[in-house]
Specification:
NPC2 protein; mainly beta; Ig_E-set; 3-stranded antiparallel sheet; Immunoglobulin-like; ML_dom; binds 2-acetamido-2-deoxy-beta-D-glucopyranose; signal
């Protein structure tokens, strides 16, 4: 009975955390990443907190290949102009928490990568830079 309860508890804990990815910071300045939530073949949510207010932002994705960032273009460069796509509205206010979201059900075949996401203001100052492994499918 105790063993069973313990196993259920472990399963519950693992299940509850299984979507949070480990991420590395690669030079965040005006914001910081709080968590990266990943649902395989579903979506990616990069939750971040703003340390300063910015009026507008661009988003860049790179694929890290042998330690080097290679271009891996996203459909839209302006992060706030496509609310339906990225789920962000500008301005992004100091202290606020936001999710940058990406639909992952768009690539065939399944595509694994170490990705780097960089959100910048329009003066090209980095808001956040975060990298982690995930996949499209
Ligand atoms: C962000 O800047 C772009 C390019 O100048 C512009 O088209 C867009 O309307 C701006 N978005 C916001 C939310 O201000
Ligand atoms: C961001 O999304 C995660 C789930 O992916 C959710 O737990 C969190 O509350 C969201 N944060 C904001 C600021 O919407």
């Amino acid at each position: 009975m105790y063993v069973r309860s313990f196993l259920l508890l472990v399963l519950w804990l693992v299940g509850a955390n299984s979507h949070l990815l480990k991420f590395e910071d690669c030079g965040s300045v005006k914001g910081r990443v709080v968590q990266v939530d990943f649902v395989p073949c579903g979506y990616l949510n990069i939750e971040f907190q703003m340390l300063e207010t910015v009026q507008n932002a661009t988003i860049l994705m790179n694929q890290i290949v042998e330690g080097k960032p290679e271009p891996a273009p996203l459909p839209y460069i302006y992060a706030c102009n496509q609310y339906d796509f990225y789920g962000l509205r500008c301005p992004l206010r100091a202290g606020g928490r936001y999710n940058f979201s990406l639909d992952l059900a768009q690539e065939e075949p399944e595509f694994h990568l170490k990705g780097r996401f960089t959100l910048k203001d329009l003066s090209a100052h980095v808001i956040f830079c975060s990298q982690f492994s995930f996949w499209f499918c």
